[in-house]
Specification:
Number of helices: 0
Helix content: under 10%
Number of strands: 0
Distance between the termini: 12 Å
Strand content: under 5%
Amino acid sequence: MNGSTIYSIVFDKVKSGSHTITWDGNGSNGKAIPNGIYLE
């Protein structure tokens, strides 16, 4: 692991429960992110 932030999806606090988030697969630089497992 290199510890870099790839992309921040949620900036606000959300209530508990089920949520849907759509992401286009690009990083904050606009380039496609390779397949893999990403942890927060």
